[in-house]
Specification:
The chain is an alpha+beta fold. The protein has a single domain, classed as Beta Barrel (Hypothetical Protein Pfu-838710-001). Helices cover 22% and strands 47% of the residues. The protein has an eight-stranded antiparallel β-barrel. The radius of gyration is 16 Å and the shape is globular. The mean pLDDT is 94.
Length: 165
């Protein structure tokens, strides 16, 4: 699977929620997520425990750049987060753990995330979900247009994931 994503520091989640609502975005809910990142020689590999969608493994490859970037990933549902975490911790080792409350909105094929990350602060993320018919340049353009709507400043854009922070 592929998506186009971008992440930024975002200091006013309440304003972000109002903007998402004004866009007539569908509110999915507030998701409590714990991401356990395992050590890898390349890419990223995490176990996501989600209050809204259960637990799943997410191996993914994405460049560290501040602008909109392509991410290639797979979602692998797991029956037992505890056992899965235990075995991958033993096999690979834990790199870091990120815990957050994520308010999720959907605008067409774009996921709007307003995140409150434990010990890191508040953030904004867009993910344009691609399919085989998607034209990547158009998805990047949609993401960039939404950055303007949400008044995200260029200097607040982030290149990596929460794991690196």
């Amino acid at each position: 699977m592929e998506n186009i994503e971008i992440k930024a520091k975002y200091f006013d989640l309440e304003n972000g929620k109002k903007i998402a609502e004004n866009l007539k975005s569908q509110y999915v809910g507030c998701d409590h997520q714990v991401d356990t990142y395992f050590k890898t020689s390349s890419g990223r590999f995490k176990l996501r425990e989600s209050s809204l969608s259960g637990a799943y493994l997410v191996p993914y490859i994405r460049d560290n750049r501040q602008d909109a970037k392509s991410s290639h990933y797979v979602l692998i549902p797991v029956a037992s987060a505890t056992e899965t975490k235990k075995i991958f911790s033993t096999l690979l080792g834990i790199d870091s753990v990120v815990e957050k409350k994520r308010h999720i909105y959907l605008k067409d094929n774009i996921r709007i995330h307003l995140d409150d990350v434990v010990n890191l602060g508040t953030f904004f993320e867009l993910e344009a979900v691609c399919n085989e018919d998607s034209i990547i340049e158009k998805e990047v353009q949609k993401v960039n247009e939404l950055l303007d709507v949400f008044q995200v400043k260029t200097e607040d854009l982030l290149s990596g994931s929460y794991k690196e922070m």
